[in-house]
Amino acid sequence: MALMPVEEALALLLAAAGPIGSENVPLEEAAGRVLAAPVIARRTTPGADVSAMDGYALRAADAATVPATLRLIGESAAGRPFAGTVEPGTTVRLFTGAVVPDGADAIVIQEDTRRDGDLVTMNEAPTPGRHIRPAGGDFASGETLLETGHKLRARDLALVAAADVAEVSVARRPRVALLSTGDELVRPGTGARAHQVIVSNIYSIAALARAAGAEVTDLGVLPDEMAATQAGMRAALDGGFDVLVTTGGASVGDHDLVAPALTAQGVTLAVHKIALRPGKPLMFGRSRRTQVLGLPGNPVSAHVCATLFLLPLLKKLQGLDVPAATELQPAILGSDVKANEQRMDFMRAEIVGREGGLPVVRPLPVQDSSMLRNLARADVLLVRRPHAPPAKAGEPCEILPLED
């Protein structure tokens, strides 16, 4: 089977995916969720003309020539507006956030005044409208504030709350199941023997998926035995999950049972080998409502493949815009790199400085895909296109940032 380019594989994976539905959540649970419907303001903000400063409300014409002394007739504070009207020759004490009383069209800040009992002398001529926040200056009732597909940030929640919206419609969280395979795998903390391997990739993949908005269920580790593998796959596919992610058993060895087990459950696998390093053995398909993504068992390869394929899939399931190809960022090489062969290479690299506003990146000295320490040490993936020629330090390059 010919190797499939990364971009083509991603396009095929995303072509079968779409938004999975929505739910209403209270605002306090909406951070990080993706809007499934626009947010429409239910009130005008500010709801009236309000003061931006502490001072005195007046008719600008009454203090066109200063000093001008006016009679104080009351005060307006935030939440306690003045009930009367500012008539000629009068003024109202007001505080920041207070409603500007009827009849007033200007404010003189308190530093430019002198008060003697009920008389207030204005020492600065006011400008109509100055220091007044007009009604609707932020937004008006009925205005669309946030569009469908927007991922809610902390500052967005303040806007939504101010619009008198207490509940929003958001994309349902994708339900992701994780299944690992391999007789050699044991859980951390159980006292692994020399011939055993501590399963680690499920923890990084679960963390990536949760950060992308998914609910994750770890379904455990399956042995390298066909009946058990088929039973595990069948239970996962019948479990109501949107995505099943398997790790391990995705190659073509005698003990790689994931592909035949999935096929036996009616899953048609679209891809098996990707022109990618690390992570050539990778599969995906669909069974009824469940997208299936088969990642390599190697934990570094699994993490890179999850970054490249699982995260875009989870975005699309939540209605987020996903580019047709991996979004790469420009950078500068911090050391020489060799020519690349036919597979797209995602090298673990560190940011060692900045030049011309771009990060300077240097690949880590050991790129073996079993080196978890180097994966943890890396800041970015340095991307080398298929058949890329040698490149020197100081030349432009492309990077894919890793998660924070």
Describe this structure in words.
It catalyses: adenylyl-molybdopterin + molybdate = Mo-molybdopterin + AMP + H(+). Belongs to the MoeA family. It is a single chain. With 404 residues, the protein is of the alpha/beta class. It has four domains: 6-20 and 173-317, MoaB/Mog-like domain (Molybdenum Cofactor Biosythetic Enzyme, Chain A, 3-Layer(aba) Sandwich), CATH 3.40.980.10; 22-45 and 137-171, Molybdopterin biosynthesis moea protein, domain 2, CATH 3.90.105; 50-133, Molybdopterin biosynthesis moeA protein, domain 3 (Beta Complex); 329-401, MoeA, C-terminal, domain IV (Beta-clip), CATH 2.40.340. 18% of the residues lie in helices and 32% in strands. The chain has seven helices and 26 strands. The protein has helices at 6-15, 154-162, 201-211, 226-237, 258-264, 299-317, 372-377; strands at residues 22-26, 39-40, 50-51, 55-58, 68-76, 90-94, 106-109, 113-116, 119-122, 132-133, 144-146, 167-171, 175-181, 185-186, 197-198, 215-222, 243-247, 268-273, 276-277, 281-287, 290-295, 329-333, 344-355, 358-363, 380-384, 396-401. The strands form seven sheets. It has a six-stranded mixed sheet with strand order 7-4-6-5-9-8, with no helix packed on it. The chain has a six-stranded mixed sheet with strand order 16-13-17-21-20-18, with helices on both faces. β20 (281-287) and β21 form a beta hairpin. The longest helix is centred in the last third of the chain and has 19 residues, at 299-317. The radius of gyration is 31 Å and the shape is elongated. The protein starts with 5 loop residues before the first helix and ends with a strand. The relative contact order is 0.14.
